[in-house]
């Protein structure tokens, strides 16, 4: 169990004390707390939090329903501030703790929601929201006037929760003070407003002759929305696993390149971030990197694993893999630009690449990024027939070929990104651990000359060096194996 | 059928067998727009709409036309309320998403806000404490008119609602209002139930009944078109109601109650949660579609690698699904069936040399089983339910050791392979061979179901 930092403990203690002080007046006999409503709302909220534990409903329910605010906000609009603070307590205290030490969280959560509810209800009362909810005779809510105090209360709720969350981030997670609050409030704004209006409708129906049952119905669409959202996340991770499976299917055929695809994805993302692409395109580019060699599935396994030099004929077959890959993924709509990257990642700036021999700007941007990332990883990773080269060497080689083979802009972006972040691929091929550590330390050193012994002859000795990314590393002298996607003789 | 290149016989560079679209001589600058973007089969055409379906369409159309004529003749009661609800339905229709998820009944309600608005109008008793007087015909007329108005811009976008959908909408709204409005307007409602919690409870019951009626109708329409067994279809429809259907129903009831208390301001307020639900559903549907596309791509890997003939995985999947339907499978089982059928050959990727024409059904049993196990290992790495991996792993076992889904995939796969190999008259010969092997390899019921499905002609024949 992780221990809680001292400051976080103090912070949680202070918050809990504050919440207790806010809720205390409700316990006084003279307060006239509507215990029936408070109890019902508290049970309802606890039920919403617990529903995930129920095996029958909860099997596919969202794992965390925390943030099921309509009930809390209905309490904010219905009962006095001190009592509103109490509504949150049982549910938040009993909710499932996903990770981390449970006891501090069981204190922290009720305190946070209790304080937020109290503040929101106080604002609602101060703005006259209670009167607007039951104005005139017979008592009826006064719309649209009643919306304003409700919206203000919901905003205050979001604000208090965000402020308290920022505090706990700063004390427990040691996030710098300025960064702790960034984005917390704006992000929660829209959901809390929607939940606030749902809470308002709950409160209106609760007070109407139709009673609490009608109010319950409000929760159903909200619950289903959460449920679908959880399904969405499940399906999305399943989908990502399937993409990985596509890649692993390549690995089955082509044992030299294990982990290569994932690393090309990572390197492509580094370049894309450096170029300032939007997040969405960066994600697509990651897939482009991961899937760039998927067409190798279409190349006969015997050819991919062939020992010894390839005949020109065989080379031509291997060079079909970008087209095979494009053919395979063209049915996957979301890949968009990535599909062109898969087709064109072996094109070269001077028009000597394949499959189409495109030149310069004719080559799609994504393809130019993936080409650089592909070459970089092909040079730095260790394969069964040779060892990887140091990051610095690889970058020198890339710079040397920039303009002819690679887009200089992408090469520069990669150099800058590696300077800044280093190269620590999450997936490495099964290289010896010592070397892995050395490569990592070289990367951390900002690409400075790394003490990795390389058995490769100097690439400059090759008359047509770095012509094909996969051909850049010259085979190990003792190995008769030839790199996969051999270079076309021209 | 095009012959696939074998490794000893490398394909020419122009990739002709894989790329049916002619290649431009000038290379495309950016090939993002796929050259042949619709690999899936065109939507099933039904040259003749079955009589019961046509009767439902005509009935709904007549009802809507009659209601409109009545309202035009006698005028609208409570114009403001009618306009507000009409506007809500129009907005809901405008927010409609495409009918992308027709296969999944969970995603079959494309315009939840419109449906909820129509339901709320059918169940509307009071408006801000004042009784209303609109009758059944006005409810039908207003919702049908709003539905049509909202559908016009959708027509331009190619997302027009299907006749089935329109008929269902009109009939369910009519059902709900027939259950509610006459009783309410005659005052019997107030006498029997009063105006308290029981009123809300009664609305919930009505909503549930309406949902049931809609499910019965929808399943009957599908049944009339496809001849699939009715029970599983109804079960599918009812299960779908758990998702967005219950959200629509609850919202309809709540809107009716909230308008009774708070007046028409409740409508926009209540649209928000439902729109949120719709957003969640459309994102879910989008990721499901993508997922299916990815699985299909994975399945096509074997085709592009030359291990299996073009379109084999897709045909086996379609055939398996149809047989599964015919045998009364539903919901999750059908998804498992489809994914397993798509990926059943994936194990061949691990082979160094392809099996001739991918015809695994003719291989020795041991070899078949080895390929199946290899395939299961790949499938386990994808995120699909583990049932799918089980089907792929067990597809080479004798049918008595297999789950039903695996039996179906095995028979469909063998049929597709044999029918192609036998030349003209292949389908019949293939069925004959399957029947002869029912002692051990194929379950007799599955083979008979396969024969039924094929005789109906719903699935394209092999080799197409």
TrEMBL record, chain A:
Residues 257-379 form the HD domain. Its EC number is 3.1.4.-. Residues 434-473 have a biased composition (Low complexity). PROSITE patterns: HD, HD_GYP. Keywords: Hydrolase, Membrane, Transmembrane, Transmembrane helix. The chain crosses the membrane at residues 32-48, 68-89, 150-172, 184-206, 212-230. One of its GO terms (molecular function) is hydrolase activity. Residues 235-430 form the HD-GYP domain. It holds the Pfam family HD_5. Residues 425-490 are annotated as: Disordered. This is HD-GYP domain-containing protein. It comes from Streptomyces solicavernae.
UniProtKB/TrEMBL annotation, chain B:
Signal peptide: none annotated. Gene3D superfamilies: Hypothetical protein af1432 (1.10.3210.10). Residues 30-41 have a biased composition (Pro residues). Pfam families: HD. Residues 15-29 have a biased composition (Low complexity). Residues 305-427 form the HD/PDEase domain. The keyword Metal-binding does not apply. Residues 1-48 are annotated as: Disordered. This is HD domain-containing protein. It comes from Streptomyces solicavernae.
């Amino acid at each position: 169990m992780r221990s809680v930092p001292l400051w976080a403990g103090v912070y949680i203690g202070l918050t809990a004390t504050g919440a207790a002080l806010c809720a205390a007046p409700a316990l006084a006999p003279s307060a006239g707390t509507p215990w029936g409503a408070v109890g019902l709302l508290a049970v309802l909220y606890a039920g919403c939090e617990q529903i995930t534990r129920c095996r029958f409903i909860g099997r596919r329910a969202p794992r965390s329903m925390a943030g099921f605010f309509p009930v809390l906000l209905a309490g904010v609009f219905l009962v006095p501030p001190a009592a509103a603070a109490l509504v949150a307590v049982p549910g938040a205290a009993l909710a499932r703790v996903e990770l981390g030490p449970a006891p501090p969280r069981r204190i922290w959560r009720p305190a946070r929601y209790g304080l937020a509810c109290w503040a929101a209800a106080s604002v609602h009362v101060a703005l006259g929201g209670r009167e607007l909810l039951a104005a005139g005779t017979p008592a009826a809510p006064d719309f649209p006037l009643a919306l304003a105090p409700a919206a203000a209360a919901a905003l205050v709720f979001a604000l208090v929760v965000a402020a308290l969350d920022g505090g706990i981030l700063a004390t427990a997670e040691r996030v710098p003070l300025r960064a702790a609050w960034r984005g917390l409030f704006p992000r929660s704004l829209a959901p809390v407003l929607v939940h606030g209006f749902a809470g308002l409708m709950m409160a209106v129906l609760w007070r109407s002759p139709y009673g609490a049952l009608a109010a319950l119905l409000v929760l159903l669409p909200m619950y289903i929305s959460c449920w679908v959202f959880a399904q969405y996340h499940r399906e999305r991770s399943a989908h990502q696993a399937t993409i990985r499976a596509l890649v692993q299917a390549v690995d089955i055929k082509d044992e030299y390149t294990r982990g290569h695809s994932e690393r090309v994805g990572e390197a492509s993302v580094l370049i894309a971030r450096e170029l300032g692409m939007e997040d969405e395109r960066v994600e697509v580019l990651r897939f482009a990197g991961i899937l760039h060699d998927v067409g190798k599935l279409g190349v006969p396994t015997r050819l991919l694993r062939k020992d010894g030099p390839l005949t020109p004929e065989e080379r031509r077959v291997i060079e079909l893999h970008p087209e095979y890959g494009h053919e395979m993924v063209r049915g996957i709509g979301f890949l968009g630009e990535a599909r062109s990257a898969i087709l064109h990642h072996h094109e070269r700036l001077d028009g000597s690449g394949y499959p189409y021999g495109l030149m310069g700007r004719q080559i799609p941007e994504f393809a130019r990024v993936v080409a650089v990332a592909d070459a970089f990883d092909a040079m730095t990773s260790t394969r069964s027939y040779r060892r990887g080269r140091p990051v610095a060497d690889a970058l020198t080689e890339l710079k040397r070929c920039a303009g002819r083979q690679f887009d200089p802009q992408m090469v520069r972006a990669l150099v800058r990104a590696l300077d800044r972040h280093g190269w620590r691929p999450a997936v490495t091929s099964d290289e010896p651990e010592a070397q892995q550590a050395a490569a990592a330390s070289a990367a951390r050193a900002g690409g400075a000359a790394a003490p990795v012994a390389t058995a490769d002859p100097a690439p400059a000795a090759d008359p047509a060096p770095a012509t094909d990314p996969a051909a850049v590393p010259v085979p190990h002298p003792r190995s008769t194996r030839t790199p996969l996607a051999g270079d076309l003789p021209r | 059928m095009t012959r696939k290149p074998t490794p000893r016989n490398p394909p020419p560079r122009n990739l002709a067998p894989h790329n049916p679209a002619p290649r431009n001589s000038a290379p495309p600058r950016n090939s993002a727009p796929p050259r042949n973007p619709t690999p899936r089969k065109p939507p099933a055409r039904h040259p003749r709409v079955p009589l019961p379906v046509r009767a439902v369409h005509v009935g709904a159309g007549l009802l809507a036309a009659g209601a409109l004529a009545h309202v035009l003749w006698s005028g609208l009661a409570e114009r403001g309320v009618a306009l507000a609800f009409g506007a809500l339905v129009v907005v809901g229709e405008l927010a409609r998403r495409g009918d992308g998820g027709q296969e999944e009944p969970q995603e079959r309600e494309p315009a939840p806000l419109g449906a909820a608005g129509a339901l709320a109008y059918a169940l509307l008793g009071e408006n801000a404490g004042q009784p209303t007087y609109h009758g059944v015909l006005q409810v039908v007329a207003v919702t049908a008119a709003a539905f049509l108005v909202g559908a016009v811009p959708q027509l331009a976008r190619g997302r027009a609602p299907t006749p089935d959908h329109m008929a269902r909408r009109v009939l369910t709204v009519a059902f709900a209002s027939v259950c509610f409005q006459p009783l309410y307007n005659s005052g019997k409602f107030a006498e029997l139930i009063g105006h308290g919690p029981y009123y809300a409870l009664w609305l919930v019951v009505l909503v549930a009944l309406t949902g049931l009626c809609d499910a019965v109708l929808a399943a009957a329409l599908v049944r009339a078109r496809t001849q699939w067994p009715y029970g599983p279809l109804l079960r599918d429809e009812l299960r779908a109601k758990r998702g967005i259907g219950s959200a629509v129903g609850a919202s309809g009831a709540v809107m009716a109650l909230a308008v009774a208390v708070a007046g028409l301001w409740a409508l926009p307020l209540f649209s928000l949660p439902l729109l949120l639900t719709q957003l969640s559903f459309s994102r879910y549907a989008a990721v499901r579609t993508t997922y299916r596309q990815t699985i299909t791509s994975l399945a096509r890997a074997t085709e592009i690698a030359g291990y299996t003939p073009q379109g084999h995985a897709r045909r086996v999947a379609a055939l398996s699904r149809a047989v599964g339907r015919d045998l009364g499978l539903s919901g999750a089982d059908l998804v498992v069936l489809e994914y397993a059928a798509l990926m059943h050959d994936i194990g061949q990727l691990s082979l160094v040399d392809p099996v001739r024409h991918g015809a695994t059904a003719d291989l020795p049993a041991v070899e078949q089983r080895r390929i199946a196990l290899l395939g299961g290992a790949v499938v386990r790495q994808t995120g699909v339910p583990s049932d799918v991996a089980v089907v792929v792993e067990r597809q080479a076992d004798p049918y008595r050791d297999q789950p039903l889904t695996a039996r179906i995939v095995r028979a469909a796969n063998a049929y597709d392979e044999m029918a192609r190999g036998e030349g003209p008259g292949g389908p019949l010969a293939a069925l004959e061979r399957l029947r002869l092997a029912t002692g051990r390899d194929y379950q007799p019921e599955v083979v008979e179901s396969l024969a039924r499905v094929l005789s109906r002609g719903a699935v394209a024949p092999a080799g197409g």
